[in-house]
Structure formats: C-alpha cells, structure tokens
Amino acid sequence: MWTVGLCIVAVVVIYFSYWLNKWSNPKCNGVLPPGSMGLPLIGESLQLIVPSYSLDLHPFIKKRAQRYGTIFRTSVAGRPVVMSTDLEFNHYIVNQEGRLVELWYLDSFAKLFIQEGENKTNAVGLVHKYIRSLALDHFGAESLKEKLLPQIEEFVDKTLQTWSSQNSIEVKHAASVMVFDFSAKQFFSYDAEKSQTNMTEKFTNTLGGFMSFPLNIPGTAYHKCLKDQKEALNRLRQIVKAKIISPEKHRGDFLDQAINDMDKEKFLSEDFLVNMLFGLLFASFESVSAALSITLKLLADHPAVLQELEAEHEAILKNRENPNSMLTWDEYKSMTFTLQVINEALRLGNVAPGLLRRALKDIEFKGYTIPSGWTIMLVNSALQVNPNTYKDPLAFNPWRWKELDPLVVSKNFMPFGGGIRQCAGAEYSKTFMATFLHVLVTKYRWTKVKGGNIARNPVLGFMDGLHINFSKKSN
C-alpha cells in the first residue's frame, strides 16, 4: 500500500516538475530574451499590478530592465510577453504593422474589442485607412480649425461653471465625464442631459478591468468590467440601429458618415460600427481626461509654471480687439508655453503603460527570437524618462522643450503611439487640453483641496483622487 502511495506521489512530482520546466522554458526556434515566466498560469501579473507611487517607470519594468537588459520576457495574465524599453526595437516594431505584428491587447482587454473575423477593429490596410480617414475628417486639424474649437471652448466654460458651483470636484472622474460627453456628441450626437442611459459611467467602469486578471466570475473586477461593457455595447447598438432606420434624422456626425458609406464599404456592418464606436470612444475620453488630471496636479505643485501659463493667456486676451471674443485657431497656435506644458505633462504622465502588439511570425532581433503568437509590449514610457535624453527626467520642467532637438523628440516622445497606428486624435487631444487651460486660467481660480498622490498600477491614476475647488473670477 505504501509503495503504491509513494509511486503516485513520485508521478505527481515528476509531472509537476516537467510542467513547471515547460512553463519556465517556452518553446522557441532560437534564443528567447532573458527573463522569468513567474508562476504557472498567473505569471508575474501580481507584481505588475502592485501600485507605484511615483512618476518614474513602474518598478516591475525598471527592475527587470536593469537586471535583464532593454528587451526581456515575462508572463502577464497567463500570456507570454516580451517587454521592450529599447529605442531601436520599438521603432522597428511600430513600423512592422501588418507584416510582423498586429495590434493586440492582453486577455483582460481582448474581449472588449473584437479582434477576429469580419468585425475585427485592429485591422490594417483598407479598413484601418478608412477608420483613420473618418476620424481625421471629424477630429483632425481642419475640423478643429473650422468647427470644433469654439464648440470645445463653449463646452469647457459650461462645464467649469458647473464645477464652480460645488465645494470641490474629483477631477479625474469629472474630466472623464466632460471629455466623454463632448466626444460622444461628435461621434453620434449624444446629449448627456437627454440620455436615459449614463453611458459615461459604463465606459469609466470598464477601465477598471483593464489590467485585471481575466477571471470572469461574479465579484471580480473583470466580471464587472465585462458587464458594463456589454451594457455600453447594447446602448451603442440601439443608437446605430436607430440611425440606420432613420436617415432623415442624420446630423452629419461621425456615425452618420459611416452609415452613409455602408453601401460602398462592405466591411461596414452594424456589428463593426458598434465595436468601432466603442473603441474610439474609449480611446478619446480616457487619454484626454487622464492627461488633463495629471496636468492640473503638476500645475498645482509648481506655481512658477502656472504663473507663466497665466501670463501667456492674459497676453492673448490683451491682444484682442474684443477681450470677450472666442478663441481663434491662430491664438491656439500661438500658445507656445501652453503646448510645452502639455508636452511635459504627457511625457511625465505616461498615461498608458505601453503599446501592445502580437507577433504574427517569429521575430529575430539582436540575437533574440520572439516566437509567433507572443505579445510584445513597447514600453515607450521608458524612453520619456531616460536621463540620457531628458536632464533630471522626473522634474516637471516645461522650459526644457525650448532646447530639445526635434529629431531627438520624434524618437523619444511618443504619447500618441507611432507608425501607422499613431493616434488620429493627437491634435484633438492637445487642442482640447489647451482650450481647457485657456478657459481655466482666464476665467476661473482654482486650488487643490486634497489628494493628487500618484498611484500607477501600471495605468496612471490617483491613490485618493484629485479634489479641486473652482471659483469664477470677478470681471
């Protein structure tokens, strides 16, 4: 009896050892980048989501880059991942879209965006060109110049008036609501005041599952994330259906144009439109609201920067024939210091932890082989806090942008991605932020009430929120 028991234990130990060895040493047709795969199934997910309370690179990435080099392997949420802080490799990969790599997400986010079949939203070629062209038509420089700039200014002023009627505002959430409501209005004529569904809440709740372990059982963050995502998609589907059925109610928004193109672009199915709207909406409101929040936190902590920012905008008012006239495109383009503040906030904020791609075939680079099917995370945030490029990289110093070489900046500053996937909404994001700052410093006073402590896990956030009191200036 004892012999049988010992044999069973021995078999279990041998099998577990074999499985553990196989997990720790994945198959590869070459030499894998150095690193550790962590525990079976879990990988090193737990270490990655431990909050970091600094603007510096997340310790998970920083420690491994110091130990293994600029390209290393790990496992996150059960998937093998290669992370790179290597400038040359990152630029190489972003320019290999559709050839060696494709846009990808970790499993916790993959189900939120359709990535397979006719409705996939990470496509390249004609589909990607169409989406990018449509986005630029409605959110690009020409649209901003001709139509959106005064609308943004009016919307921001109305929002700040509402904020100033309250004792304090938690800025990250409030900014998310503001940017979502305005962006959704451009996408499908959304009116937050008349809508029966609080779509902003569904989208902001979805973010909670971004870096969670993909365990879809009640009570988990991922389960709630999927539930909110489903409700948001259902509401978007209702909107798409209503617009398809009633073309006479079209107002010329983003969705109207896409529906009008359905006859000539065969990939524009109802399902595709729903998922395209979801992805674009999420990208537009989350990035801008996070960037605005970190900008206000940094300005509150650096009064000298705020003083020069105010001086620049007061000068704009003084140079007008009518100080109460709306902001013009030429005035926006003249905001040299404001755009330096925004660049510096984007550099330090590193709103997203990195760009994700999936290898379509084995990739060889600097003697290493990245197997087909592996996820690749391009940690461009590491380039933006590199002391070899940015002196005293963790200091908030907008003046540094006066002296930086544009060529160096183009390779070491990519807050909006790179390659063919560079964000079509980059100008929209910067214009929205600059307009918000213009209205804020010329018409309102504000003081930080509490919070503002950074918590990166590795997505940027605030441990206890960022609470600010706003009040309207007297004439």
Care to describe what's here?
- With 475 residues, the chain is α+β, with helices and mostly antiparallel strands.
- It is 51% helix and 11% strand.
- It has helices at 2-24, 45-48, 59-68, 87-94, 107-110, 126-139, 141-164, 171-188, 199-207, 221-245, 254-260, 270-301, 303-318, 329-333, 336-349, 380-384, 406-412, 426-443, and strands spanning 71-76, 79-84, 101-103, 169-170, 355-359, 363-365, 368-370, 375-378, 444-451, 454-456, 460-462, 466-472.
- The strands form 4 sheets. The protein has a 5-stranded mixed sheet, sandwiched between helices.
- The model is unreliable at 107-119 (pLDDT under 50).
Question: How is the secondary structure organized here?
Answer:
Blueprint: H1 2-24, H2 45-48, H3 59-68, E1 71-76, E2 79-84, H4 87-94, E3 101-103, H5 107-110, H6 126-139, H7 141-164, E4 169-170, H8 171-188, H9 199-207, H10 221-245, H11 254-260, H12 270-301, H13 303-318, H14 329-333, H15 336-349, E5 355-359, E6 363-365, E7 368-370, E8 375-378, H16 380-384, H17 406-412, H18 426-443, E9 444-451, E10 454-456, E11 460-462, E12 466-472
Parallel strand pairs: 2-8
Antiparallel strand pairs: 1-2, 3-5, 4-12, 5-8, 6-7, 9-12, 10-11
